[in-house]
Design brief:
By secondary structure, the chain is an alpha/beta fold. 39% of the residues lie in helices and 18% in strands.
Length: 476
């Protein structure tokens, strides 16, 4: 991300709408508006529905700021500048579980219904317009609101289908995880890509005929027509705001019907099968709490391989925010549902393969920042992770330690667990590998690598005698 001489950093994901751009100045998130967008903002701020949504924490808090805080692309001041609340950790829809994407979709549609009731609409329908405060979704694209024009359909419908509805249908109807599909293309899943999977009787599943087959056919039929021509056709056919509102309600009803409850996986039972004794668990929990609570209160904790969130919850008691990362979408979905029911706003669960984390994507590879570029944690928890990476995924131990250091803010702390080669879990992994493949997977080697990247301030061997915990200040 380029930084101007004044310290203003343009947000790489905010270039598609020239009417308003997002910038970062220190910890502040600012949005510059051109004259028309500023006019729309004034009308929006004076509405009834928008302040109510902000008060309900469904839309990010926004206020006016001095127009001179950020320069416009032409060098002239913006007509208006807004200051937004900062989201604790930016995530992408392909890092969300099924229930997270569905709840984000329902919030987007609720906001759109409220806007239509007062003569506004949203010109975008992208899943990227939502973020999270823990397990609560929040709409962040204030520049998307604009006055609705009678006789026009929802401009964001195609985006909504590609980044929200089609991914949900893919998982709900076929049991296929949507995350790899969304990660592959920043603009989402095209109707042409999905249609071949929904032939025969699958065409009759909820939403498929209307929003996939018929929508795709209309796109092909109107491919040569301009947007204005399509709008004129809809007006002539009697398309009204009431019909638009009914359409949105229909989509909302469909989204509520879509569900996915996968069967249990190996990881869903991990807390039962991982082999910890009761004494091990107590000692490990105490070590984690002491490590997170040591020193200044952490702003951000990463819990890598969070599973059911046991240690994320412990960390959340002593930190501002915790990102709980787990590879299995089913496990993340179960964790999210529990956190949501608890009203938890300090733990964000994400679907992420630690050996293949989200890369940078979109325009020039920076429009959607990779996980490593977003993660600069005060504390990183890597509990029962190293052996899965080093043995299960053949990642050399030096690479694992370098990776942990790279996720940590300068002077931050890594709390890491080393599972000895003779531990039953490590033995099980090694049994599936050629003999002698990992001669350097040893405790002394691991300790040397940690010492080279930081200062080990505490060490604890669990009562079982086959696992050791380390608290290391990186760069210290």
């Amino acid at each position: 991300m380029a930084i101007s001489p004044t310290g203003v950093r343009p947000e790489p994901a905010s270039f598609r709408d020239p009417a308003n751009r997002v910038f970062h100045v220190g910890d502040e998130v600012l949005r510059g508006l051109d004259p028309q967008a500023a006019e729309h903002w004034r009308a929006l701020a004076g509405s009834t529905f928008f302040p109510a949504l902000v008060a309900a924490r469904k839309v990010c808090a926004t206020e006016d700021a001095p127009p001179t805080l950020v320069p416009a692309a032409t060098g002239a001041p913006w007509a208006a500048v807004l200051r937004h609340e900062r989201i604790p950790f930016v995530s992408h829809p392909y890092e969300w579980s099924f229930s997270m994407l569905r709840d984000a979709a329902l919030l987007h549609l609720e906001i759109l219904r409220a806007a239509l009731g007062e003569g506004f609409t949203t010109k975008d329908g992208s899943a990227y317009n939502l973020q999270w405060r823990g397990a609560d979704p929040v709409f962040i694209d204030i520049g998307s609101f604009e006055p609705v024009r009678d006789g026009e359909p929802w401009a964001g419908y195609r985006q909504f289908c590609q980044t929200v509805l089609y991914p949900l249908m893919l998982t709900a109807h076929l049991g296929v995880d949507f995350q790899p599909w969304l990660r592959a293309r920043v603009d989402g899943i095209e109707a042409d890509e999905l249609r071949p999977l929904f032939g025969g009787t699958r065409r009759l599943r909820p939403g498929v005929l209307t929003h996939l087959h018929l929508h795709g056919a209309m796109q092909h039929r109107n491919a040569a027509a301009s947007t204005s021509e399509v709008r004129d056709q809809l007006r002539a056919a009697g398309f009204s705001r009431d019909l638009l509102l009914a359409t949105v309600r229909g989509i909302e009803k469909l989204v509520r019907k879509l569900d996915h409850r996968p069967a249990g996986s190996h990881w869903s039972d991990y807390q039962v099968t991982c082999g910890y004794s009761a004494r091990d668990r107590v000692a490990k929990e105490q070590f984690v709490v002491t490590s997170v609570a040591a020193g200044a209160r952490p702003r951000l904790v990463l819990d890598l391989g969070a599973n059911d969130g046991r240690y994320s919850r412990l960390a959340a008691g002593h930190a501002d925010y915790v990102v709980a990362v787990e590879q299995d979408p089913a496990v993340v979905d179960e964790l999210y549902r529990k956190l949501r029911s608890e009203g938890q706003r300090r733990i964000l669960p994400l679907v992420l393969d630690l050996a293949d984390p989200s890369p940078g994507g979109g325009w020039r590879g920076v429009e959607r920042a990779g996980f490593a570029d977003r993660a600069s944690a005060d504390v990183v928890l890597a509990l029962a992770v190293v052996h899965h990476l080093a043995i299960g995924r053949n990642v050399p131990l030096p690479e694992v330690v370098d990776w942990l250091a790279g996720l940590t803010a300068p002077g931050g702390t890594v709390v890491v667990e080393f599972v000895h080669p003779e531990d039953p879990m490590a033995t099980r992994l090694l049994a599936n590998k050629p003999a002698g493949l990992f001669p350097d997977y040893r405790r002394d080697t691991f300790e040397t690598l940690l010492a080279a990247r930081g200062r080990v301030t505490e060490r604890l061997e669990l009562p079982s005698g086959t696992r050791t915990l380390y608290r290391t200040v990186m760069g210290g």
